[in-house]
Amino acid sequence: MKELTRSLRESLWNGFTSDGMYTSEKELSWAVNDAIQRTDIYGLRWRTVTARKIHECEAGHIIHEGDQYVSYAYNDAWGQDLKFCMKCSAMLFYFMKTYEFPIAIFSHWDTVKNEPKHDK
Predict the structure, then answer these.
(1) How far apart are CA 47 and CA 56, in angstroms?
(2) How far apart are CA 29 and CA 63, in angstroms?
(3) Topology of 42-120 in CATH?
(4) 11-34 as b/e: b if 16+ CB within 10 A
(5) pLDDT tens digits, one per residue of 88-100
(6) Which of 67, 45, 43, 63 has its CA nearest to residue 54?
(7) Based on the number of CB atoms within 10 Å of its own CB, is 40 exposed (0-12), middle (13-18) or buried (19 or more)?
(8) What is the pTM of this model?
(9) What is the mean pLDDT of the chain?
(10) Are 99 and 9 in contact (CB under 8 A)?
(11) Are 90 and 17 within 8 A, CB to CB?
C-alpha cells in the first residue's frame, strides 16, 4: 500500500538519493524551503533563487536557467554566496538534521494530494 504522508526527513532523504523516483520537484522544493524556514526563520542567510543564467553548485552540478537553487550568504559582499542545487541542498539539510528543528510551516508531505500538510 502506498504511504499517504512523508515526513520532512523522508522527503529530504528521497530528494537527494532517489533521482526524482520517489520525490517530485514540488515535494523537493517544499522540503528544502521548509528546512530553510527551520534553519533561518528570518531569511538572513539562506534563500531559494530562480537561476537567470547557468550556474554551477558547490558540488559541481549544473544549475540551468530557470532552475531553483539555494543560496547561502556567508559574507556581506555582493555575489559572494554559496550556491547549492536542490539535490545538494536536500542532502545538506538532511545531514544538518533540520527535521529535528521546531516545525516552521508544515510537518509532512501528502503523497495523495501532492501538497504539504500538518501532522495528522
Answers:
(1) 17
(2) 15
(3) first zn-finger domain of poly(adp-ribose) polymerase-1 (3.30.1740)
(4) bbbbbbeeeeebbeeebbbbbbbb
(5) 999 999 999 998 8
(6) 63
(7) middle
(8) 0.82
(9) 84
(10) yes
(11) no
